[in-house]
Amino acid sequence: MNCEEYKAALHDYALGKLAPERAAQVDEHRSNCPHCVEFNAICEELLCRDFVQFLDDYVDDSLLPERRAVFERHLSICDDCVNYLESYRRTIELGVESAKPSLAEPQDDSIPSDLIKAILDAAKLEDQ
Amino acid sequence: MNACVSSKVYAFTDWPVCAEGVARIRWQQAVFLRAAFFMVHTQSDVELLARLRAGDHGAFERLVHERIGPMRAAARRLLGNDADVDEVVQDAFLALVRVLSNYRGEAALGTWLHRVVINGALMRLRSRATAEEELPEELLPSFADCGIFLEDQQSWASGPLGEAMRADTAKQVRCCVDRLPVSLRTAVVLRDLEGCSNEETAELLGVTVNAAKLRVHRGRQALRSLLESTLGDCAG
Description:
The complex is a heterodimer.
Chain A: H1 3-14, H2 20-32, H3 37-45, H4 48-53, H5 55-59, H6 65-77, H7 79-98, H8 106-109, H9 113-127
Helix pairs in contact in A: 1-2, 3-6
Chain B: E1 10-11, H1 15-22, H2 27-34, E2 38-39, H3 43-53, H4 57-79, H5 84-99, H6 109-128, H7 167-178, H8 182-193, H9 198-205, H10 209-230
Antiparallel strand pairs in B: 1-2
């Protein structure tokens, strides 16, 4: 097993989806490959679950620099978290955009005339 | 209009004067008035305020026509499609009429009205006192015991969710927001759709900043799942 195959197999390995012989190859590569030492350290530094738990702080840029660096390193090796982060940011954008008056449908802007009349009548009564 | 995002924000100098009038009105208006901490000062507001104080009904009518759409939209985002929406909007305009004589100075009436509507809608939600809906677990990401995602996360970049928003997409997004449990919906609406800060969101919800942040975060995650399942194939 080479390094690329090792990295590609890790997700299924962690979920216990690999056949025993393939899992043994992963174990062997992890134990013996000097090139994957840094990669393994990053894998163990932050779990996807913890990344997601503090994702709002990452998006708000309110993490301490050293903590943010940990998040950045995790993103450098984890496609799932990259995709989740992008979709989380896009969710915020979609929410913001959906509230723009320019995107309101015509019927959303149709104001009942009796409501306007009620407001104006009540305001005149308040004035008196 | 976004009530919380503005390029020029000033402390609300009318507040001490308005406070004197609080005892004369119902407690709801007192809560409304507390919304007016920050105001935007524009020349058109100064002129409009002068006309309103002079009893210019035409100016008031123009203000109603100009502001009622965004105000109803804001109330609807919090309350859903509900008759309460129109009552909250009407209450806001009448609150303005009641405080007008004590309203010294130059404030952004649109911003003030928007905040009053937000407060009014939140009060309505609290008064409903319904049992909190549970957040379906499937709307939150699930992880294996080892801490990695149980399912592959797809990119949204090449699907419809990555495209520029159209009116029909905006409607679908609003529908997804409406489907969130109330406590999460209000948090997401205030933080993202109304542009409030975490601190403002917490104050409006009457919870700690950390509690507000948690609601916003869970609400965003749930909304993300609803958008993904509603707005179609994101696999690209």
